[in-house]
Amino acid sequence: MAMAHERGESGIGQLASALTRRRGALAGLLANRLSDRPLLVSAGQPPARNYPDNTYEFRASSHFLYLAGLPMEGAALLLHRGQSTLFVHRSTEADALWHGETASPESLQVATGVDAVRYLDELEGVTAGLSGLLRLPLRSAVASAEEQVLLDALIELRLCHDDHAVSEMRRAAAVTVRAHRAGMAVTRPGVRVSVIRAAMEREILAENFTNAYGSIVTTCGEVLHTHDRSGTCGPSDLLLADVGAESDLGWASDVTRTWPTGGRFSPSQRAMYELVLASQLAAIAAVKPGARYRDIHLVACRVLVAGLRDVGLLAGEVDGLLERGAHALFFPHGIGHLLGLDVHDMEDFGDRAGYAPGRQRSQQFGLCYLRLDRDLQPGMAVTIEPGIYFVPAILRSERLLAPLRGDFRPDKLGQFADVRGIRIEDDVLVTATGHEVLTAQLGKRPDEVEAMVSSASSAC
Ligand SMILES: [Mn+2]
Prior knowledge:
- The chain is an alpha+beta fold.
- It is globular, with a radius of gyration of 24 Å.
- It has a five-stranded mixed β-sheet with strand order 4-3-2-1-5, covered by helices on one side. A three-stranded antiparallel β-sheet has the order 7-8-10.
- 40% of the residues lie in helices and 13% in strands.
- It binds manganese (II) ion.
- Residues 254, 336-337, 383, 385, 425 line the site of manganese (II) ion.
């Protein structure tokens, strides 16, 4: 495959040995717990857009990528009794005509390190003779007891990234950093938001990477997952961009920056930006092995509440405000999530991956959106992404405001009318002694951000 050639022989060897180690580790976990049940992991097919031949771009299932490495359409990996067999399409003349020659079984065996490569038309015959075959993705929404054991083993493995995974995430992070710089560099009043998005995604496409998720690029940062990119930059808006690259082997990055469209933060924008940044830095500083992720969320909330009280939007004691969830009026989501092959890693397993056994989501507004509550371990990758949002529907909700009994000061909102939504997000790897910010190359101090935006303005 073209991708394998680009990586060179040593790159291929590193991938194959990483995959062999992962398959061996999974077999080790399952041998004890599932007495050697066979497992078939499918890559999947691209979904149709409007009719079957017109498909969306193919993206292999993350479990397949974790164990078989390469995005091979329709392929399946069979793991049984310590043996790994990859099943791939038998290429016909018509396939060669429409899609080009496919990689040979020999080259796929070298690239993935599997014990054997066979054709998909043989798969049914092989699996018919196996009893108790487990499949991924799961075929039913409710996992059987054996499937739950399988999911837990995969979660155990995928929670802590190996060196190969980390190097892929570094590649994705580097391209994401370039994308954000490119977005800042084309921003100025009068530029359409879609142009900024195009400048950012250009960097990703030019690397032959893809987006890890649908880009959020907007001057309405308070709409958390808006995909409306129809606006135009005003003279003094804030532009929020949540854009991340995914490497050609499927590993994600996830970064948000917020910058002033005119190249300078207004005093109110700057005050809120500095508050979000202070909360992000405090949360990142708390990332280390053994730290509970929910506590890191609460570190950020505490900084935000204290700052919002200092500017007069909240009144009263910080502890009491935190207890009553005052931060959630302005920071209604969680501090972040797991990051890996999926931008919210393993969220296809629901909270089974994000929440440690025995822990459950809170019912409280704000905390109920926290996607991760585990004790951190070396090798985990998480995002840290606090924000401040002025969401009218929240700030006039009697139900949400009731617990604050007058400690929220709506009369002060007018001072922050030019702040709609601010988020700052970085990708953080937990190390043996603390953490490493994988996206640290992208500046985020207000003066650094202003310089990246205004360098474009002064050049034209
Ligand atoms: Mn994120």
